[in-house]
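Per reviewer request, we include the raw input and output of the structure prediction for the construct analysed in the revised manuscript.
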Amino acid sequence: MPIDATQPYDDQNIFARILRDEIPSARVYEDDHAIAFHDINPQAPTHILVIPRGAYVSWDDFSARGSDAEIAGFVRAVGEVARAAGLVAPGYRLLANTGQDAHQEVPHLHVHVFAGRPLGPMLAR
């Protein structure tokens, strides 16, 4: 069910629990600002989620409250993940859903990295 990105951070969401190692994940990247792991329900041959370590609900929340170091570190982590997975040359898609209309399902900022086949148009027509 989509969430309301204006609500306070829920520290029991699945990504918060992954960050606390309460739920296992197939991590492919980790640093002081972000972690990345394979999606358990992949929508493309390569489907990696990148999340900041901080308690942020959305891009709006992150850009308003995150430190410069957190923001730079998170953006760099997304690039690192794409490079390490060999996605730069063939291409990849980044997707970050925010709020109900965009169908955000987990109330923790995350970026989907999709790749591994032609992905078609950005939105269904």
